[in-house]
Amino acid sequence: MEKVTLNVQGMSCGHCVKAVEGSVGALKGISSVKVDLKGAKVEVEFNDKEVSLNQIKETIEDQGYDVK
């Protein structure tokens, strides 16, 4: 299992949390997704044999947020 913390800009409310956690959590190989609104961070635990870090970043960006 890999664990990564991404800096994500543009999240500001509960809807943002649901959008990110729901979309990333739906990917195959994701075991946990935790959004920290105040810190502008998303912590993801995943199986790198099933999903790549780039796929995770793209999924977050598809929701309208910037991954730094």
Automatic annotation (TrEMBL):
Q: Name one GO molecular function term.
A: copper ion binding
Per UniProt, subcellular location reads as: Cytoplasm
Show where the HMA domain sits: 2-68
Supply the InterPro entries for this chain. CopZ, Cu-bd, Heavy-metal-associated_CS, HMA_Cu_ion-bd, HMA_dom, HMA_dom_sf
Q: Which CDD domains has this protein been placed in?
A: HMA
Q: Name the UniProt key words of this record, in alphabetical order.
A: Chaperone, Copper, Cytoplasm, Metal-binding
Question: Which GO BP terms apply?
Answer: copper ion transport
Q: Which Pfam families match?
A: HMA
Q: Name one GO cellular component term.
A: cytoplasm
Concerning SUPFAM superfamilies, the annotation shows: HMA, heavy metal-associated domain
| NCBIfam families xref list | chaper_CopZ_Bs, copper ion binding protein
Q: What name has this protein been given in UniProt?
A: Copper chaperone CopZ
Question: What species is this protein from?
Answer: Neobacillus cucumis
